């Protein structure tokens, strides 16, 4: 606020006598004064009435003086009223002024025609009846104008004339003169046509009637004024005038006897008073108004002097403000010539004021922005204000600066737009900071949206504010499923208190707290996450980053399993080695002992028992050495198809008629470098286990295939080296292996068979043989459906690339379609999603059939359903595909399973011709099958 020591002069704005009398409400003082005058007039009238007929000396000069005074008073009154009309333009005021003009004109004519005044009989051809009729017309015309005024006036003065006020005044004057000429012609030239009003110095009956009518008009005017409220000042004094008018008529034309009697003189005195009442009030009010105006003018002059001083100081102060402002303030004409340039403008643009003033504004405008400046000046010229307009200007040294402009019209004292005033604020650094902030926000948003870790933001009460999209992959939830909810709804109850303790520690100042807590997945299983958390006091928010430990824990478990198997293998290998040494002594000496006791049957029998036990021990150590990968192998390049067929022949009598053996061999199967005897034994062991899992019979499938295990599969199985393998799969339709026993099936001496029906070394021996041969073994099993054991043997080197291998090494082709992956194993699902996305597809995922159907109903753009065949729950992959086809007949389906294609089809789970991609598969196989399924 601008503060000064100037004293403000308050000029009175009262309007008690400064407004027009025709609109100013009458005060009690006005009414009292008017009533006093009427009272005095009434008393004098009452005193004069009895003596009205007394004859007095004729004095013609009295008539002349009376008429002259009357005319002057009426004309001045009319002029004052017309001057008010020129401002107020009310019809009522014009009619009243016209009435006064009429009385003045009538008084002039009456004096000219009065006998003995200017000629013995009067001028204008008058006779003895002329002045009498003129008196009646005169005293009847004015009341008519007063009646019209009373009915036209309102509280605000009444209706107003829309045309020119001067024309209305001219019309009024011309009208009065015209009417008076016509009436004068009638009462002079045509006087013989008029009734006689005065005969032999006395009144006729017609005279009495005319006088009574004229007196009644005056009385009607008085009554109308009384009832037309509210009364203005002029209304009150018009009522006084009409009272005097009534007394004038009564004394001059009713109660008197002849001219120059007491009533004649007294009536004209009343008439003269009637003419001066309103005039006196108008003159008094004008004098008061003039005095008030003079006082007001003096005060205004004093106020003007104070204002000049005040605004001079303000102007100087504003000048100081402009010069000291941090923003550039520039004024310019509408054609762009600079007229003002403050210190800040010098600093911002590099031009001194002397250099800039008088120059076009284009000196600071880049070439590509000059049209913009012309547009701004045109808009300002149209009285438009431009606010917060961001643009670019150029300094004297050529450097561009970002500015925000506020441009306003610059007006002269009369309001004409003469230029523009511009405030330019340098936002170069601010814009750079905004851009830097925008990039940081964008980067953080991208990190937030693409992070594979789970990012959570909560308020101080643990309610989720933000949740990263990675929650869908990690917990199977959408961010909106968590936002607004408390974290307690998702944290495992056993980890809830630990999480609360960590949040409290963060609020106490501990930063980057690391802890583990389990959250519930959408499908109900627990997900362990390692959390890094911190607290921001300014925004009152907790920030958490959670890394899914599921894959890490699985890898650690697998690594521990490998270590365990290696440790057990070393132990069993050492025991078997030492035990072999013992057996070597036993088997080496038992022959000697047998020869020594050959003639003693009872000792020979004991020797035979010892020899059989030693043989069984040798077989046991052989199995142990196989598991420990320390058995002597004799690998050679073999045809796996031929060996598998030979094994199938040997198995027929062993397995029995209730089990059907179905070889499914790839024609161009690669040769493998392997010990054929050990491989045959491994197939036999797997077949015997399959037989035991099918006590009521079933189907055994023996299959060979060429397989490439890629880096993705190797990353999920640390003991696998990526490369080409020959797969031999042994699949059954038996009872399957319970999930909780899957991790123990290769442990030595572990068996689910009854006591005495197995050593528990069969699968462990196969495991050891395969690992010792540089291969890989994998079991796929679904309880109640069967088991498939897949042996991956390294392809023999030194052979030419086959047609199959060339096909697998062909360029990988992807696509842009949307694919829904349904897989209950979280690790496998994550691997598949990654591979499919890398091929360019859009990937959606579900852990079971129920989740998949929800996604299918919600998203009509899904092109392919890629589902595991065997899944837990009420619906397997085949049933899911059927239900999906019912809801979406156009939806294509590709199945996958740990079983081989032949095993699945012949187990009756899929129809012949249905597309199946057997696990594991390489990226090229996945790409090929996806395109085949989408094209089909």
Structure description:
With 936 residues, the chain is of the alpha+beta class. Helices cover 51% and strands 17% of the residues. It is built from 27 helices and 24 strands. The protein has a five-stranded antiparallel sheet, sandwiched between helices. The chain has a five-stranded antiparallel sheet with strand order 9-8-12-11-10. A hairpin with a 5-residue loop joins β6 and β7 (417-426). α3 (91-113) packs parallel to α5. The model is unreliable at 1-18, 625-630 and 754-760 (pLDDT under 50). This is histidine kinase. Pfam families: HATPase_c, HisKA, MASE4, PAS, PAS_3, Response_reg. Residues 574-797 form the Histidine kinase domain. The modification 4-aspartylphosphate is found at residue 868.
What summary fits the major beta sheet?
A: 5 strands, antiparallel
- General form: rod-shaped
Could you give the count of β-strands?
24
SSE-based structural type: alpha+beta
Measure the end-to-end span: 81 Å
pLDDT < 50 stretches: 1-18, 625-630, 754-760
* Assembly classification: single chain
Strand sequence of the main sheet, in spatial order?
4-3-7-6-5
Give helix % range.
Answer: 40-55%
Question: What percentage of the residues does DSSP assign to strands (E)?
Answer: 15-25%
Indicate the radius of gyration in whole angstroms: 63 Å
Number of discrete helical segments: 27
Mean pLDDT: 78
EC number: 2.7.13.3
Protein name: histidine kinase
Modified residues (4-aspartylphosphate): 868
Enzyme class: transferase
């Amino acid at each position: 606020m601008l503060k000064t020591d100037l004293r403000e002069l308050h000029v009175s704005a009262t309007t008690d006598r400064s407004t027009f009398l025709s609109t100013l409400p009458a005060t009690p003082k006005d009414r009292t004064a008017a009533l006093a005058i009427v009272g005095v007039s009434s008393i004098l009238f009452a005193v004069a009435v009895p003596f009205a007929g007394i004859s007095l000396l004729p004095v013609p000069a009295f008539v002349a003086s009376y008429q002259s005074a009357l005319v002057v008073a009426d004309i001045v009154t009319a002029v004052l009223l017309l001057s008010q009309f020129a401002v107020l333009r009310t019809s009522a005021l014009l009619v009243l002024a016209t009435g006064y003009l009429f009385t003045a004109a009538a008084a002039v004519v009456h004096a000219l025609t009065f006998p003995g005044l200017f000629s013995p009989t009067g001028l204008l051809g008058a006779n003895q009846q002329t002045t009498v009729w003129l008196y009646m017309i005169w005293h009847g015309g004015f009341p008519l104008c007063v009646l019209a005024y009373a009915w036209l006036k309102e509280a605000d003065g009444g209706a107003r004339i829309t045309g020119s006020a001067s024309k209305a005044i001219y019309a009024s004057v011309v009208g009065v003169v015209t009417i008076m000429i016509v009436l004068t012609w009638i009462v002079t030239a045509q006087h013989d046509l008029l009734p006689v009003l005065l005969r032999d110095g006395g009144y006729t009956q017609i005279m009495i009637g005319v006088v009574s009518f004229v007196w009644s008009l005056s009385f009607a005017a008085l009554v109308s004024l009384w009832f037309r409220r509210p009364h203005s000042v002029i209304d009150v004094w018009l009522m006084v005038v009409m009272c005097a008018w009534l007394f004038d008529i009564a004394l001059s034309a009713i109660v008197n006897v002849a001219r120059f009697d007491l009533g004649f003189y007294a009536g004209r005195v009343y008439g003269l008073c009637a003419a001066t009442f309103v005039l006196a009030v108008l003159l008094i009010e004008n004098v008061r108004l003039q005095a008030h105006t003079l006082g007001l003018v003096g005060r205004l002059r004093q106020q003007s002097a104070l204002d000049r001083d005040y605004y001079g100081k303000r102007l100087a102060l504003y000048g100081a403000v402009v010069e000291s402002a941090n923003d550039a303030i520039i004024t310019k004409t509408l054609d762009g010539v600079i007229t003002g340039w403050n210190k800040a403008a010098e600093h911002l643009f590099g031009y001194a004021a002397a250099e800039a003033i008088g120059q076009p504004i284009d000196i600071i405008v880049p070439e590509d922005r000059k049209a913009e400046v012309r547009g701004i000046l045109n808009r300002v010229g149209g009285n438009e204000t431009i606010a917060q307009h961001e643009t670019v200007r150029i300094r004297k040294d050529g450097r561009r600066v970002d500015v925000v402009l506020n441009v306003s019209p610059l007006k002269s004292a009369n309001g004409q737009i003469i230029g523009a005033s511009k405030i330019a604020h340098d936002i170069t650094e601010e814009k750079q900071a905004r851009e830097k902030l925008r990039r940081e926000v964008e980067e953080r948003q991208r990190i937030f949206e693409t992070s594979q870790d789970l990012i959570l933001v909560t308020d101080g009460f643990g309610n989720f504010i933000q949740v990263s999209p990675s929650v869908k992959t990690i917990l199977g939830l959408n961010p909106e499923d968590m936002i607004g909810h408390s974290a307690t709804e998702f944290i495992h109850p056993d980890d809830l208190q630990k999480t609360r303790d960590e949040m409290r520690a963060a609020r106490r100042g501990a930063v980057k707290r690391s802890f583990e807590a389990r959250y519930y997945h959408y499908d109900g299983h627990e997900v362990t996450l390692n959390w890094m958390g911190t607290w921001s006091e300014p925004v009152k928010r907790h920030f958490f980053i959670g890394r899914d430990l599921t894959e890490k824990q699985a890898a650690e478990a697998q690594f521990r399993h490998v270590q365990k198997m290696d440790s057990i293998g070393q132990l069993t290998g050492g025991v078997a080695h030492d035990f072999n040494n013992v057996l070597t002594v036993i088997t080496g000496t038992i022959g000697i002992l047998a020869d020594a006791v050959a003639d003693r049957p009872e000792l020979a029998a004991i020797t035979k028992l010892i020899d059989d036990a030693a043989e069984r021990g040798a077989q046991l150590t052989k199995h142990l050495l196989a598991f420990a990968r320390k058995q002597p192998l004799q690998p050679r390049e073999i045809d796996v198809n031929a060996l598998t067929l030979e094994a199938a022949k040997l198995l027929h009598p062993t397995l029995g008629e209730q089990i059907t053996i179905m070889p499914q061999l790839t024609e161009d199967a690669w040769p493998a470098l392997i010990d054929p005897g050990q491989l045959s034994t491994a197939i036999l062991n797997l077949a015997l286990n399959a037989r035991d899992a099918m006590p009521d019979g079933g189907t055994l499938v023996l299959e060979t295939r060429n397989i490439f295990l890629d880096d993705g599969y190797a990353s999920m199985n640390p003991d696998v080296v990526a490369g080409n393998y020959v797969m031999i799969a042994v699949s059954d339709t038996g009872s399957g292996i319970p999930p909780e026993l899957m991790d123990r099936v290769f442990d030595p001496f572990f068996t689910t068979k009854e006591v005495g029906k197995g050593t528990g070394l069969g699968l462990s021996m196969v495991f050891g043989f395969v690992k010792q041969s540089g291969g890989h073994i994998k079991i796929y099993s679904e309880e109640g459906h069967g088991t498939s054991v897949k042996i991956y043997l390294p392809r023999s080197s030194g052979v030419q690339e086959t047609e199959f291998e060339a096909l697998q090494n062909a360029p990988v082709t992807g696509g842009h379609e949307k694919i829904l992956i349904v897989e209950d194993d979280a690790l496998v699902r994550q691997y598949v999603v990654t591979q499919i996305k890398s091929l360019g597809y859009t990937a959606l995922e579900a852990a079971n059939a129920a989740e998949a159907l929800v996604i299918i109903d919600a998203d009509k753009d899904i092109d392919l359903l890629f589902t595991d065949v065997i899944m837990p729950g009420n619906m397997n992959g085949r049933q899911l595909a059927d239900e999906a086809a019912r809801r979406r007949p156009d939806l294509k389906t590709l199945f996958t399973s740990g079983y081989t294609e032949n095993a699945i089809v012949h187990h009756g789970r899929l129809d012949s011709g249905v597309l199946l991609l057997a696990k594991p598969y390489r990226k090229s196989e996945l790409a090929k099958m996806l395109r085949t399924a989408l094209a089909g």
